[in-house]
Sequence to fold (397 residues):
Amino acid sequence: MALFAGLGLSAVTAAPAAYVPAPEPVDTGRYLVGAVMCPLWNDGKRWTKIEPYPDRKPLLGWYDEGDPEVTDWEIKWALDHGISFFLACWYREPGSTAEAIVRPGLDHWIKGLQRSRFHDKFKFAIMWENANKFYSAPTTEADFLGKLVPFWIESYFRRADYLLVDGKPVFSIFNPATFVRELGGEAQAAAALEKMRLACVQAGFPGIYILGQSCWGKPLELTEQAEQIQRLGLDNSWAYHWPTFTGAFGGKLNPTGAEAIAAQERLWRTQPPPNVLTLSMGWDEAPWHFKYSKVQWRLTPAEFKVLAQKAKAVMDQRSGVGLECRLVLLDNWNEFGEGHYILPTQEHGFGYLDAIREVFAPGAPAHIDLTPGEIGRGPYDRNYRAWILSQPAPAVK
Fold:
């Protein structure tokens, strides 16, 4: 349970705590539970798009993402509820492909993680966002193998806080079809990925787990995407989000929670193996002005717990050593603009995280969820306040 959950403010009079309380990780058994996360919140300007939706305000406030203390709160909240890693979107600065060195974009969270106190207790992996229209940086075979792969190995895979499974780095490509197109075809893309595996072995790893993401299209299209992922030699398919873009709601703009749960369970059971399960809590991109879909739905924490129970039942039926038998992905940690997030907010507090803890760590002892204001820490909104102060005052009529 949370003390004064949803307030995000100190409800008691006490001296400020020395720092964020240490995480108390819980045991999730044979399952490795992670959350997809999008590092968008270092810019105070972006919070102004979320501000009109106060239910989405994080209990961290309009926080400066990348602040190591903020990251330590994220680590604590994640580990306390059974989430042991983030799959972070990785971007490349637009127009930088021709440069001699690789320049990441929006890498403030990964840098902040490295400077946080609890980073040795937590893991991260990267999802190469190779099809983002705002951070477009097309690749070639020479660029991919000569610059990107060496950069990822040296800058991330070798870090002590990078996610290794069986000693192998876990890595994902957001849009395999884009990768195929940019490299000139499936054969060329598959060969490049095989050379990436060899580069990881030469770097001292026993190999690499390479995942391919797809979440768009009707059942036949999803099957075709999964089959392409297999032809490329990738280890697993997975979905950034289910099931808004699959036609599962038959054109319905406001599906019920029960409909969203049933659609996700159906997708888990019908995707060609080996598919890593994704659990989505909702979709409502009103702050982004419905750029991708006008569909709006959101599970309550109680419904999300039902979804998690169904996911665990599916996982319990799987046997083997592949990631599809061990890995569970939560959608999404902090995508407030698209309307899918489990990081504690004003509306539901720690509800989504508690649901995960109750399902995947049922033997964990009772605990208390704390927010920064309750122990005299924060606020962490310097960038947001600076942006507000930088704006001209409204004209007087």
Observations:
- Residues 242 and 260 are 9 Å apart (CA to CA).
